Amino acid sequence: MGPSDEQAWSNRWRHHHPGERGLLAGGLLLLVLLLPPLPTAPLVLVVMTTAVVVGAGVPLARFARALAIPLGFLATSLPIIALSLELSEGVHLSLSPDGARRALEVGARALAAMSCLVGLALTTPMTDLIAGLRRLGVPQPLVEIMDLMYRLLFVVVERATNARRAQEARLGYTTFARAPHAFGLLIGALLTRSLAHARRLEIGLAARGFEGDLQVLTPRRALSARRLAAVSATLIVVGGVALASLGMSS
Amino acid sequence: MRLSACNLVPSLAGEIRMHIMEGFLPPLHAAAWTAVSVPFLVFGARRIVRITREQPQLKLLLASAGAFAFVLSALKLPSVSGSCSHPTGTGLGAILFGPSVMAVLGAVVLLFQAVLLAHGGLTTLGANIVSMAIVGPWVAYGCFRLARPIGLGLAVFLAAMLGNLATYAVTTVQLALAFPDPTSGFAGALVKFGGIFALTQIPLAIIEGLVTVVVINLLIRISGDDLWQLGFGPRPCRVTEVTT
C-alpha cells in the first residue's frame, strides 16, 4: 500500500512529537477494545477520522482506502461468526439474531480499531515509530536492523516490480504449469540480489571504519503541553460518553 | 517512492490474507497471544544481539533478509481460483535462517506489514506472530530436518507446504477460540473457520511448496556460497559439487 508511507512523511503533524499521535491512537485503540463496542466503536471511528482528516490534513479518500484494506477479511469472517452451526442433530447452518448482533459488534470494533492503526500509520513515518520502539526498550541491534530494513525495502520493491515485469514480457506467467516455476525464479533472484546488496553495503561500511554501531540522528521534537492536553481531553470525553450512554441504556 | 508499485499489491477484492485484522480479537485473547509470543521473541532477540555483537556485519544480512521477506509476502502467488493470495514465506525463512531467528524477523515483518500495508494489526500482532513467525517456521523446520535424509527436494516441499498449512491451522484455532459457536461451541467454530480456509488454502500450500523447491534449486545452482553463509544444512560439499 503506497498511500501510508508517502502521507506519513508529508502530513501536517509530521513535525510534532510522535508521542502525541501515539497517545491518541493507542488510547483510542485501548478504549475501543476494552469498552463495549456498540457505543464506543462508532465514536472512536468518527473521532479518529476527524483528527486525521481535519487535524493532520490527510485526504479523506486516502484514509478510507487504507481503512478498506481488510474488508476482504471481514467479508469472509463475519458471516462465519453470524451463522451458527448445528452438529448434534445433523449438520445445518442457521442465522440467529444473537449471532448477527455479535458479528456486527466484532465488525464495528475491528473497523474502529483499524482506524486507529491507519490513523497512526498515515501520520507517522516508520523511522519515528522505530525510534519509539527503542525508547520502549527494544535492543539497539534490533532497532538498527529495523531501520536498515526500512531503508532497503524500497530497493527490493523496485527490484521485484522490474523483475516481474520482465518475466511477464517474456511470457513468464502465461500457463498454469509455468507460473510457479517463474515465481520461484523471481523469489530466488530477489534473494540472491538482496544478499549481494547486503555484502556490498558491508564492504562499503568496512571501508569507512565500521565498528558495529549504526548511529542515526533523530530530530529533537518537543512534546507540546497544549496538544497533550487536547489528546487527553479527547480520550476522557470519548471514554466518558461511551460509559454514559452505556449507563443510560442499561 | 510508493510501495503500491502496480503488481505487488493487487486490487483488494477477493484477496485472501490470513493476518487477523486489527481489533478483531477480544482484548483477553489479544493479550494472551501476545504473552505466548514474548518468550520466543526474547529468546530470538537475545540470539540476534549476541551474534551481531560478535559479527556486526550480520546486521546488514539480517536487514536484507527482512526486507526480502517483507516484499516476498507482498508478491502475488500464481492463482488457482481467480482470487489472489500471497506466499507466507515461513518455510523458506525457516529453512534459510532457522526458526529462532525467524521468530524475530517474522515479528518485525508483521509489524511493518501492519503499519505500511495495513495488513494485520498492533493488538493482534501477538496472535499473528504465534501463527506466522513461530508455529509455521518451527513446523517447517521440523519437517525439513525430518525429511532431509529422504531427499532435499521432498524435504523442502514438505517443509514449505506444511509450514504454510500449520500457519493457517493456528489462525483457525485462534479464531475458533475467540468466537466459539453459540450452539456447537469450539468444535463447531473450528469446522466453520477451518472449512472455509481449507478450501482455499490447501491448493495454495501446495503451490507454495512447489515454488519453494524452485527457489532452493535455483539457489543451489547459482549461489551455493549464499546458502553456505546462511548455514544451510551441515554438508556444503553437495552445493559446491553442483556449482563447480
TrEMBL record, chain A:
It comes from the Bacteria. The chain crosses the membrane at residues 44-61, 68-87, 107-126, 228-248. The keyword Disulfide bond does not apply. It is found in: Cell membrane. InterPro entries: ABC/ECF_trnsptr_transmembrane, Cobalt_transport_CbiQ, ECF_CbiQ. The keyword Methyltransferase does not apply. Belongs to the CbiQ family. Keywords: Cell membrane, Membrane, Transmembrane, Transmembrane helix. This is Cobalt ECF transporter T component CbiQ. GO terms for cellular component: ATP-binding cassette (ABC) transporter complex. Its main location: membrane. GO terms for biological process: cobalt ion transport. NCBIfam families: ECF_T_CbiQ. It is a multi-pass membrane protein. Pfam families: CbiQ.
